[in-house]
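Intended use. Records like the one below are meant for learning the mapping from a protein sequence to its folded structure. Do not use them to infer anything beyond what is encoded.
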Amino acid sequence: MSETAEHGSLGPRMSLYDHALRLHHLNPDTALPRDGEPYPDEEHHRRDGRTRRSDDARRQGMDAAAILDSHFARSDAKPSELAWAFHDVDVPIHHNEHIAAAALRADRQRVQETGRWLVRHSSDRCSALIGTALLAADWADEDVEIIRTIGLLSERFGVLAAHALKRRRGGVDALLWLAERVAGWGRVYIVEALCLGGSTRARSWLLRRACDGDYLNGYFAGRVATAAHLHEAIVAPDADEPLIDHTGRLLKIMAQCGGMGTTWEHYPPTSIVLEAHAGHLAHQAPTLSRYLDAAHIADDLAQAAPDRLGITADHRQRLLDQYLVVLCRPDWSEAAQAGFDPDNDYFPWFAETIAARLRLPGFTEPDTDP
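Structure written out for the chain above:
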């Protein structure tokens, strides 16, 4: 059945690439709203539903690879013939060995041309994803911009874009550009790729900007701390405030991300980082975010078994006291009270749980003798 006969009733559609560009121009320095959804093919996908994935992980991507093999076997086949060829088959969002092998079996120039055409022109997410996978199987530097752009639709295209960019010169800069403009799962994929790079520019960004406060940060916080050598950076006497603040965020996340990523228990330098962070915190001006991060850290310290952190009970208590001394200072209590919003469900919860357990001034009544 021709593309016109099968899909023409829905009218012309913008390509996924142009859709990403349009939204980026409207949101040049932030993540795309809803990660760019709805996509231009939303009506078609909603009408047809999606093909069920194979229960056998070894077979995922095989049907798509077979279509590619058949296409590249014909010397006169044009990229446009694949515009809707993958809609009814399983197309994994991750790097797939079957699809990558099909790309390597074919002529490299044809694979590049096909990948570029599908990314730039396909209005079907499945074909655009295949195009990204074809580019990810190569290393041509001239494809960095096109990969970076489709990567803005990061929940679906971010993991393949990250895989493609880390193989290219200039890929780190493109990953850093994307990292400032993606959120949610897309941020997980991009940050994890940056953790594998080892560049000085990536390390500086990871130490200060990797965690944006989203719940999914728990999947990579420990990787960031390890890859960026946090324990070396934070002990410096001249550590800058973005580094100190981000360290507090990392520590808070790692304390609470059991089942997702690396926790304090499985991060050997935890006590070193805690001690250095608490020391820097004592010299910072109070803000609500600093107060809340420090309170969460102190609460987790108070409940942590010392042997699970590889320290003695006395050491754990000294670390806890360092945080409590700062949190109980009048100026810090005042900053917390000034930002308290009783209409936000978080703040009453914080007062009734963490503040109550730690007996923080301003949230609990002092003891009085009967």
